[in-house]
Amino acid sequence: MILKDKVIIITGAGPGMGQAMCRGAAAEGAKVVVSARSVDAINALAADITAAGGEAVAVPCDVASTEQCHALAKAAVDRWGRIDGLIHSAYYHPDWGSIIDHPIDQVLRALDVIAVGGLRMAQAVVPQMKRQGSGSIVNVSTLATRRPMPGEGGYAMAKSAVNQLTRQLAVELAGTGIRANTALMGWMDGVPLEQFFAAQGEAGEAFRKQRAQEIPVGRIPPDKDCAKAIYFLLSDYASEVNGVMLDVNGGDWVAA
Length: 256
Description:
This protein is α/β, with parallel strands linked by helices. The protein is built from eight helices and seven strands, in the order E-H-E-H-E-H-E-H-E-H-E-H-H-H-E. Helix 2 (39-51) links the parallel strand 2 (31-34) and strand 3.
């Protein structure tokens, strides 16, 4: 259990990667603060984790609200007395299409949730982490910031901004015991992708097979397995890892 007794806040704990991270972190021994806007969804997820023998509490939060971000951090401290890690996974995706055609309000929303939301959460948890003399922040980003993909423009813009946030945090928090890293996720097999393929019918299944063949590991990596890279970044095994952009994509992108 590489996260045993660590208090971890996870934003964006919705279907797919968010839920997988919450369940996986709890299985690794973490005390998980499950957070998203949907109260019913996070309550159900926290209950499932507890029923499976883990420790979790549900705290609703819209990361577009500074007040709610600080309330989320306070709830973690009130419950368990500390904050060892933050996974900022909350996101908003503009409508699929050319960036030239993206509605500006949707791009601004993506920036507010992903990038500014990441800053709000960092500002909320860093004071407690400084008092402890330790902490780990992991921002979840995307392969689309490495390799531009048609349709992903506004989303990738926001994720690129959160990549830079990570770099700034890593440098500016030097000497505090707080680390900041980014996990750049590629294609992941999970609920959202299943829905994407299903919506395309037979063409979707053909596309799934094509994508799996194009990825060097020979499959679309399951989200629950991709999440393990994030647990590593949160853990003491990564004590000397700081300011890193870690690619998690089965070799779909190989950094120079």
